[in-house]
Every structure is written in C-alpha cells, then in structure tokens.
Recover the amino acids of this structure.
C-alpha cells in the first residue's frame, strides 16, 4: 500500500508515520510539506491513500484538492487537521475528501478512519458528524463565514473568542497591520460592522463556545 502523508510539520509527520507503520505494516509512506510537493507527488505516481493537513504554512490544501482528485481518481483522501469547524469539514467533503479527522483524535481512531476510507466509505468522527447534522438541519445554503479564506476564518475565530489584534499577530507570527487587514476583509465579506457583531454572529452559529 502506498500512502502520501502531507503536513508542514516534520515532527508531526514523523509521529504519524510511526502510527501508520504500526497499524499497516509494509505500507510505503511518502511525505510532502507543501501543496506544491503534494501536486508533484501525485503527478509522479499512483497512491492508495492521501492523508492531508489543511493548513501548510500559508497554503490551503483544499484549494488544490480538486486537482489532486483529478490526478488520483481512485485514491481516497483523509483530511487530518487541527481545524474541526464545520465550514472546513463541509468544504473538504465537497472538494472530494472521503474522511475528516482532527489531530486531537487517538491513533486508534486514525486507523479506523484509514480503514473506512480505504474500503470506500466516508468517515468523520462522532463530534464532527453531530456538528454536520446541525448544519444540514438548517439547510445547505452557504453562510457568510463560509466564504472566508482559510486564513480569514482562522483570524475570524480568534477574534470571536475575544483575542486582541496584537495577540493574534503574535500567535500567527505576522504583523498587527496584517491582522488588521484580515479583520477589515472579514467584516466586509460578512457585512458586519464591529468585533461585537462578529462575536454575536459566531455565538449564534455555534462556531465558538
């Protein structure tokens, strides 16, 4: 079995490789640390499974996922990300992913997810499934926050949790001016006027606790 493992953190890839090799002895695992490397790998050979992180540096693997699926039509894609928000899950599944797990899940659940997508089934964790059920219950119309880019969504959720622009800048290793620019774009895209409105929106749609 040939697996492509894509994540921009070498230590995480190393740990994940050991978990996969333990549960799937004999698997041939190749690695990628960027979207460009993912595309190069899938153009160069056939894989049985792709495991992709969403955020690889400033890149978003969901942006290249449709092209990846065109190149590897039969290979299921399992998203393994730190983001469990339903807008990421919905976008991933719509783009062609077969499964979605957050990085906080156990090695046992990862193995379960891998087996599920390899057998042709879709797989999401119970908590994500419950979140998706709530989403589908109110309809499939895209909501304002779902039009945001991956980085805009990240900043949006941090603001919604009450973090200051300066704190967010430190966490993301960018300038305060850059975060302020993201904030302005977010407010414009979502037709909101202030952080308070943004926070109320996030609470209303259960995007933050």
């Amino acid at each position: 079995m040939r697996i492509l493992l894509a994540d921009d953190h070498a230590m995480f890839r190393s740990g994940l490789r050991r978990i996969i090799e333990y549960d799937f002895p004999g698997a041939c695992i190749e690695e990628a640390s960027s979207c460009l490397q993912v595309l190069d790998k899938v153009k160069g050979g056939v894989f049985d499974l792709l495991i992709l992180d969403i955020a690889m540096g400033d890149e978003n693997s969901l942006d290249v996922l449709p092209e990846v699926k065109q190149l590897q039509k039969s290979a299921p894609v399992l998203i393994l990300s730190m983001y469990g928000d339903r807008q990421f899950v919905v976008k991933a599944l719509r783009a062609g992913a077969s499964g979605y797990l957050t990085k906080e899940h156990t090695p046992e659940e990862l193995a379960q997810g891998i087996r599920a997508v390899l057998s042709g089934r879709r797989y999401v964790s119970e908590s994500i499934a419950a979140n998706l059920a709530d989403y589908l219950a109110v309809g499939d119309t895209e909501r304002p926050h779902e039009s945001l880019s991956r980085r805009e969504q990240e900043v949006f959720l941090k603001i919604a949790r009450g973090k200051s622009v300066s704190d967010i800048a430190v966490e993301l290793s960018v300038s305060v001016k850059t975060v302020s620019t993201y904030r302005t774009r977010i407010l414009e895209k979502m037709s909101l006027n202030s952080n308070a409105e943004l926070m109320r929106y996030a609470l209303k749609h259960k995007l933050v606790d």
Notes: The longest helix spans residues 10-23. The chain is about 55% helix and 15% strand. Residues 2-137 form a domain with the Rossmann fold fold (CATH 3.40.50.2300). Residues 12 and 44 are 24 Å apart (CA to CA).
